[in-house]
Design brief:
It is built from four helices and no strands.
């Protein structure tokens, strides 16, 4: 049992030192998974605008929306994940990874 707890603590400490990269990767994965749905919703709202305006506006909204999500959501995820102690951070990250995999598999 001590071996498992030591392994969890070691992996959690390593994860904590790389939390910003892990959080950025999680936000990126969520953007990839749900980006098409958001793009479809925006296209639906912009459907009545002429094509010459709709295409650049859509590109601008996707670019700005993705950038804002990456810049502002990443610190929130870092704050949330940093609340876990060294025995629970690694299992939480593993569960999140599995959940993202299940969602990706179903799409």
């Amino acid at each position: 049992m001590d071996l498992v707890l030591d392994l969890l603590a070691t992996v959690s400490r390593w994860s904590r030192s790389n939390l910003s990269e892990i959080s950025l990767a999680l936000v990126g994965c969520l953007l990839v998974l749900f980006g098409a749905d958001l793009k479809g919703w925006v296209e639906q709202r912009l459907g009545s605008i002429a094509g010459a305006l709709r295409v650049p506006l859509m590109a601008l909204l996707c670019m700005v929306g993705s950038g804002v999500a990456l810049i502002y959501a990443t610190p929130w995820i870092i704050k949330g994940l940093s609340q876990f102690n060294n025995y629970s951070l690694a299992p939480v990250l593993l569960v999140v990874l599995v959940l993202i995999g299940v969602v990706a598999d179903r799409r």
